Amino acid sequence: MSVDFAFIDSGVGGIPYLAHLKQMCPAAKCVYFADNKNFPYGTKSHQEILDCVTELTRKIISEYNPGAIVIACNTISVNSLDWLRKTFPDTPIIGTVPAIKLAASITRNKKIGLLATQATINNPYTQNLKNEFASDCQFVLRGDTQLIDFIEKHSFTATRQECIEASMPAVHFFKEQGCDTVILACTHFLNIAEEIQEAAGNEIKVVDSVDGVTRRALDVHKVEPSSENPQTVLVTTGTNFKEEYDEVCRKYDMKYL
Predict the structure, then answer these.
(1) What is d(CA 242, CA 148) in angstroms, rounded to the nearest whole number?
(2) 228 pLDDT higher than 90
């Protein structure tokens, strides 16, 4: 089997990247890998992340021969992107990194919130992005494992109000620190981005990297024109969160293997 794009994440947090790409290019053949057996990645060490994602990437290339791989996870990207590109040089690999450059162009008071996993916050890759694109800005950091856990396990079957309430601790934290811009630097947060923005109101602009990453992927790998809209496949490494994943597949018209 051969696909245009393979998406990799520790769960289904990166689904918005796939959904956006399919909106832009319905003919793309895609497979989404959720390494839910090893969820969450955000509390793992750098080496543990490398071990997990290297094994998974090797399996994906062997079984699906993707035209390109999208690492639909900030934590995996900042920890392993360079390593994966060196290890698998024949397969284009696109990462998702915090939208720091975008946030720096939007902020008015130079106080930017970074909502992420602790692994992303602590990684030197993130610090390098801050130094390169936003050296004149003050960053307020929040590693929110609890919110990520809620999104993976509950958000797809939760009400809109429950999602808003779950995001309120993070929103209050950034408001108290005076941030006028917040970066969603974990792909899980994108699944409730509208609810986070609603909770934040007009005081804070919430930004992400979905559009930039999607356009980059379509530039790197050109999809053959077709009138078909092939069904996307969801592959998991474990049996966790089946009810949530069934709902994800229903919502996004995916086949759950």
Answers:
(1) 17
(2) no
Distance, in Å, from the CA atom of 151 to the CA atom of 34, rounded to the nearest integer, reads: 14
Look up residue 175 and give its amino acid: K
| Burial of residue 130, with CB atoms counted within 10 A of its CB: 0-12 exposed, 13-18 middle, 19 or more buried | middle
Distance CA 22, CA 40 (A): 26
CA distance 2 to 85: 20
What's the token pair of residue 204? 């804070």
Tokens (6 digits) for 11: 């769960």
Amino acid type, 204: I
Exposure string over 62-89, b if 16+ CB within 10 A, otherwise e: eebebbbbbbbbbbbbbbbbeebeeebe
Q: How far apart are CA 223 and CA 243, in angstroms?
A: 32
> Sorting pLDDT into bands at 50, 70 and 90, what band is 88?
very high
Q: At CA 17, angle to CA 123 and CA 23, rounded to 5? A: 160
pTM > 0.85: yes
Residues 21-33 have pLDDT tens digits of: 999 999 999 999 9
Residue 14: phi, psi to the nearest 5? -85, 5
Catalytic residue annotation: 73, 186
HSE (side-chain half, CA atoms, 13 Å) at 38? 22
